[in-house]
Design goal:
Blueprint: H1 2-20, E1 26-29, E2 35-40, E3 46-53, H2 67-74, H3 87-93, E4 97-102, E5 107-114, H4 118-130, H5 136-155, H6 162-170, H7 184-189, H8 192-202, E6 208-214, H9 218-229, E7 252-258, E8 265-273, H10 278-291, H11 297-305, E9 309-317, E10 322-331, H12 337-353, H13 358-375, H14 379-393, H15 398-408, H16 411-421, E11 427-434
Parallel strand pairs: 2-6, 7-11
Antiparallel strand pairs: 1-2, 3-5, 3-6, 4-5, 8-10, 8-11, 9-10
Helix pairs in contact: 4-9, 10-16, 12-16
Domain Peptidase M16 C-terminal: 192-367
Keywords: Hydrolase, Metalloprotease, Protease, Signal, Zinc
GO molecular function: metal ion binding; metallopeptidase activity
């Protein structure tokens, strides 16, 4: 009877989530190839205008890394009709906020305005696409901004370069081997014409998706979209290069010395499949089970119970072509990196050998239900998810249905996928240690 009640409660919860979270949308494509997605939400007088371009760090020349992230900054410099330095002022003076972000796979720009400023948001994004001013003063200015960002967030930040070192060791052929921040030497060496050519190739309607989400009149929105975006030249279809990596069959061992730390860390990293695959979603569950928060298996065992570590954390880079699952541990004296690695491996062997308990399985499902709700709890999240599912997954309706995929994963699949990907001979072990060069301290 108790199991029946639990099953009924879970079914009702899932049904409630499905109905409450249903995101309605309309999509179409302009003659120039720009894909448009509209989502009407009358719950608040606000609107998001956003554009995602299918260009990220993986689309860069290996001798010119950092270009996609550079353009995240550069395209706020100004346009033919928005003077240099006026972009942010125009947004804030009209009650809005804006931002942008770059990954290995795409670049995303957005504004949030009061709904009566929808036309302004559309005009500004069309200006960014059609009339950006890409000149030497803008390039020089943003070059200095990005150098300071790299110093602050990476070079002078404790443990700031650990993901960069993981990527460098995990990939040989694929551009995922470098980070979006790129190389300052490459940016310094680039000529203005190279930046202009990069923009011309990638920041075009055929390589973009426009999302409008919020309190909108659909017919009026379509009229303005055609007015501001319809005449923009389509550009060429971007032909994506395909990069493949040979399977990792032998443990990769590496060491990195960080002058900003006093406590070493051990990092294990496993290459995983594209985020579009079912196995990637199973690995999401495994990651949450092993290391998702303070109630996870690794944290409870190594930090709380045995007090062997100051911290255990895990990060999954879910990417279009490959993913990477990483676990990081900081030992507490007198324990060593080797001690932590042994404990981490024991928990992975358990999940490869035994089925996780029904209780833990239900906890995972509840966790992912909660994440699903939170992901679409505001307009900004909905707009970015609509763009992401269209551009990177090729299925916009995953914004509504992806949770069903997670619910369909069985405990047996969790065990089998752990056995398939999380093996000692398929990983990197990175010892991330304090620098021995006293001059750097």
């Amino acid at each position: 009877m108790k199991k029946s009640i639990m099953a009924l409660s879970a079914a009702l919860l899932l049904g409630g989530i499905a109905s409450a979270q249903k995101v309605d949308f309309e999509e179409y494509t302009l003659d120039n190839g720009l894909h448009v997605i509209l989502h009407n939400d009358s719950s608040a007088p606000a609107v998001v205008t956003s554009v995602m371009y299918h260009v990220g760090a993986k689309d860069e020349n290996p001798e010119r890394t950092g270009f996609a992230h550079f353009f995240e900054h550069l395209l706020f410099e100004g346009t033919k009709n928005i003077k240099r330095g006026e972009w942010m002022k125009k947004v804030s003076s009209n009650g809005g906020i804006n931002n942008a972000n770059t990954t290995d796979d795409r670049t995303y720009y957005y504004e949030v305005f009061p709904s009566n400023n929808l036309e302004l948001g559309l005009w500004m994004e069309s200006e960014r696409m059609l009339h950006p001013v890409i000149n030497q003063i803008g390039v020089d200015t943003q070059n200095e901004v990005i150098k300071e960002e790299k110093r602050t967030r990476f070079d002078n930040q404790p443990y700031g370069n650990w993901q960069t070192e993981v990527k460098k060791n995990m990939f040989i052929n694929h551009p995922y081997r470098w980070s979006p921040i790129g190389s300052m030497e490459h940016l310094d060496a680039a000529k203005l014409e190279e930046f202009q050519a990069f923009f011309k190739k990638f920041y075009v309607p055929k390589n973009a998706v426009l999302v409008v989400a919020g309190q909108i009149d659909i017919a009026q929105a379509k009229e303005w979209i055609k007015k501001y975006f319809g005449a923009i030249p389509s550009g060429e279809v971007v032909k994506k290069q395909i990069f493949t990596e040979e399977p990792i069959t032998k443990t990769i061992k590496a060491t990195y010395q960080d002058p900003n730390i006093q406590i070493p860390a051990v990092i294990t990293a496993y290459r995983t499949p594209s985020m579009k695959t079912r196995d990637a979603r199973v690995l999401d569950l495994i990651s949450s089970y092993l290391s998702g928060g303070k109630s996870s298996k690794l944290y409870k065992k190594i930090v709380d119970e045995k007090k062997m570590a100051l911290e255990i954390a895990a990060f999954g880079l879910s990417q279009e072509d490959y993913g990477t699952y990483m676990i990081l541990g900081l030992p507490m004296a007198p324990y060593t990196l080797t001690d932590l690695l042994k404990e981490m491996d024991e928990e992975i062997v358990k999940i490869q050998t035994d089925l996780i308990s029904e209780k833990d399985y239900q906890k995972l499902q509840n966790t992912f239900d909660n994440q699903f709700v939170n992901a679409n709890s505001n307009l900004e999240g909905i707009a970015e998810n609509l763009a992401k599912y269209y551009m990177l997954y090729g299925d916009i309706n995953l914004i509504n249905s992806e949770i069903e995929l997670y619910h369909s994963i069985t405990r047996e699949e969790i065990r089998e996928v752990a056995k398939k990907y999380l093996n000692p001979n398929q990983r990197l072990i990175l010892d991330y240690v304090p620098s021995t060069d006293k001059a750097k301290n």
